[in-house]
Each structure stands twice: as C-alpha cells, then as structure tokens.
Amino acid sequence: MCAPGEHGAGGSAAGSADVDGSASTGAEAAPEAGDSARTVAWARAADGAQPGGRVRIDHLITSGVFSLDGGRWNVDNNVYLIGDDEECVVLDAPHDPTAILAAVGDRHLAAILCTHAHDDHVDAALAVAAATGAKIWLHPADRELWDRTHPGRAPDHEIAAGHEFTVGTGADAVALTALHTPGHTWGSMSFHAPDLNTVFTGDTLFQGGPGATGRSFSDFPTIIDSITSQLLGLPATTTVRTGHGRATTIGAEAPARQSWLDRGH
Ligand SMILES: [Fe+2]
C-alpha cells in the first residue's frame, strides 16, 4: 500500500469473494451480483485497458457487542479486506481478531482503516495490529471514543479528508479516497474506491438510510449534510458497502433522501 497522497494507477476489480473463516461469512446484497461486470466495464472505459485486475474485496462478518451511553447491543459487523494476493488493507477490526487474521492469511496487512471508533468497529484493532504490524488509522475527531475502548494506546495515524490509500501494485493498483462524513460520530469516514465502483460507508449510510444519530457524539443534520455532500453525488451504480447489514447502491438510496428528512432519522 502506498501512503496517502500517492495515486493509484487505475485498474479493475475482479469482483468480490467472501472469505471462509471461523466467523460467519456474508452474502453480498443483490447489487453485488451484477457489480463485477459493471466494474470491469467501467475500468476499461476509464483507462482503456486492464480488465480483470487482481485487487478484490473480501467480506467477513463478525459478531459481538456494541456499547454506548450505558446500553449494550449484540451486533454483526461487516469487515472488508481490499487487496490482492500479496497485500491488503482492512476496513474496521470488530470483535474477532482470529477471524480477521484468517481472512488476511499470509498477505501483508498494510493498514487498519477505521470507519469510526464505536467499540464494535475497533475492539479487535489492537490485536490485529499486534499480530501483523499494521498501522491503525483513525480520524482524530473520534479519538475520545477510541480512548474509551483502548485507553493508553493511540491510533498510529490520523486520517484526513482527501487522503488516498493505494492498494495493489502497478496497473492493478486501486485507490481508496477518504471522505469525512461526520454525523454518526464526529470522526466517521467513508472510503471511495472508484476503480472498484464502490464506497465503504461504515455506519454513515445503510440500505434504507442514515446511520443512527440518537446517541452521544451524533447529530442528524450533520449526517444528512455528509451524505448529501459526500456520497449522493457518486455515480448511481456505486455499490455502498456498509458497516452492518446488506450492501446497497447510491442509486437505490438517493431518491429516499426527503423521506429521511421527513422521518427525522
Ligand atoms: Fe457505529
């Protein structure tokens, strides 16, 4: 993986594959089935070559507890690994380091990118980092939440809007661009991978609308602003890979914006 600020060389996705591991694996949502074909076609049109690139998305689901404001909830979290046969990055490290490490396999884990610091998204981050040497990236606005789960051990790097993480090598490399999408938490991030025709939204945007904003460190008008300014302008075919539950697309969610405002969550 290249450091933020370096640019990917374009490329294409070979599609996605779920990972066999000790945790349950998740079937992608309906849009996933046709997405690989669209992705390859888009990449060909964009750079004139490189169909069938090697970078892929692996999807893992781990189960555990989310706790905040005195409440505790059993949750299933999506984990995404973006990479090729040699290296990958992981988006969120929830609950089960053994399952995440199994999904990494013998590849170099270049980074642990946190969509936000709710405990159900970061509680395995230190164990995964210790086992691999991977650096942990988090937006600084979520540091207070992080410290509640991991007091005394700071993340290694601060993510900022516009940071570009390049995964893979040469013509097969793909870029992940960090989008600051506060509202669910102040430091919530999304990661856009145009070469893969996907955006990873953490708990900012789900199938059916915005993430929760009823607890501490959250704000509904802010999440609406984030979704509107950062996400809904992406191509309609963009697959939205979420922090929990099924994937969706920008085109499926964008028409519902007014209904989110009307219901207030
Ligand atoms: Fe969350």
Describe what this molecule looks like in 3D.
With 265 residues, this protein is an alpha/beta fold. It has a single domain (16-263), classed as Metallo-beta-lactamase, Chain A (4-Layer Sandwich), CATH 3.60.15.10. The protein has helices spanning 30-47, 97-104, 119-122, 125-132, 143-149, 220-231, 250-253, 257-263, and strands spanning 16-18, 56-68, 71-83, 87-91, 108-113, 135-138, 157-158, 164-167, 174-180, 189-193, 198-202, 205-206, 209-210, 239-242, 248-249. The strands form 3 sheets. The protein has a 7-stranded mixed sheet. It has a 6-stranded mixed sheet with strand order 8-9-10-11-14-15. Helix 2 crosses helix 4. The relative contact order is 0.16. Residues 5-52 have low confidence and may be disordered. The structure holds fe (ii) ion.
